[in-house]
Amino acid sequence: MKHILFIFCDQLRYDCIGALGNPFIQTPALDSLAKDAVCFDRCITPAPVCVPARLSMFSGQYSARTGNSNNNKKMSYNGEGFYSLLTKNGFKSCCVGKMHHVWDPYAPMGFSERHTQEEMSKNEDDYTNFIKNGPYSYVFDYNGQRSEMYYVPQISQLPAEAHPTQWIGDNSVEFLDRCNPEDENIFLMSSFIHPHPPFCPPSPWNKLYRSYDVIPPHIPENYDYNKYAPIMHTKFSTKSLDISNLDVLRLRNYYYGCVSFVDYQVGRIIKKLKEKGMYDDTLIVLSADHGEMLGDFGNMGKRCMLQPAAHIPLIMKVPGKSHEIRHDVCSLVDIAPTFLSFAGIPYDKNEYDGIDLFSDKKHDVVYSQYNCNSNGVYMVAGEKDKLVWSGKNKQYYYFADENEENFSSCESNPRVLYLKEKLDAYVASDCGIETTGKAAGARESAPFMVSFMDHNLRHEEEIARVPSEYKLYFTMHEEI
Description:
Blueprint lengths: L2 E7 L18 H8 L2 E7 L5 H10 L3 H4 L14 H8 L2 E7 L15 E4 L9 H7 L31 H15 L6 E8 L32 H4 L16 H31 L6 E7 L18 H4 E7 L6 E3 L3 E2 L3 H9 L22 E5 L6 E5 L4 E5 L4 E5 L14 H16 L29 H6 L16
Parallel strand pairs: 1-5, 1-6, 2-8, 2-9, 3-4, 3-5
Antiparallel strand pairs: 2-7, 6-7, 10-11, 11-12, 12-13
Helix pairs in contact: 4-10, 6-8
């Protein structure tokens, strides 16, 4: 039998796994997995923001083809994705956790079983109901308090046993317990919201890095933020968010704590695979939708083509293959054809921009974009270099190496001309619809706040817990 375990994280940087070169972070489960796996050290997200990256992974197509390059519902893709192909071909399939397909967040998405934990609480959400109907129903911000606390390190209001990350581990283990791996092919996707902000590990996981043994933010010598600004999401600059150097270190500590708590759940899931006798027959894949700037280049968040946001981990333990580090460039669009090939399921290669990573074919370049047309930032990346185009200021940025401390726009360089031809063709092919306007309630000048992004499902319950002579604020202008 053939089995697949797909571990997917939100906003996990490539360099925040011990086996991938981080000397400080505590990730024993992922380190152990990496020793048995093929590790790709040049995997680039197709979009450095949640919704389009996940759609590209689901469809196997770049954003220029899906028509979605931002966290919105606009898209041209009308396929059914590769999850359903696995289900239809006899896999017992289950997804636990965040999917963030905003057009239909609680649909089956091709799985025969889903246990939902979407980022913003809704009545349909399984994890929301787990909290509402349990002993911690008084906790409203169970994924951490957002809005003005979005980039403020915080301890979860929930104990570890009820934390969203633990819930993913619990339900993944429970699903595997119910499986009969000798008689059925298994496909489990365990999709963690963390380490997406707010960075809120449960106690005492918040104390793993109090020694401040973390990699400090990378700020190039003689760095000029304004030169890089057109290819970054400047609303999340550390300056505009009023985040100090010490604040950045605290944020990195809590981010690391979130990663370590995810790692613990990964260890539990893999332990169950071994108990069920499934480990040797299972394709185990760990990846993420995008990274997190974490103060590098003076920025937080994603929506950026620099390494901290665009470079993601891709670890694949493949039955019958030994440990290897691969340097060829790859993308989340390769997940679908690689999974289908492993499962022996025929597919139309013309439907996918990605490739089977274990075929004899390799990418010359891969693509990424955030937003589109005149608001778009586009990238073409090779094994070591990249070319970025900013639609707003009509400028190219060529980075010759992964350090990214310097860039040029020299179009007389033959390599730049080659990448420019590739990137221009990709931009011309983009079928996306440009998004404009500001989010409702935007407060760009307020410290630690871009806009209010509260969990709004349970506001009436929150109001009921405060005497009527006190007022709560749920939006910029609304006083309740």
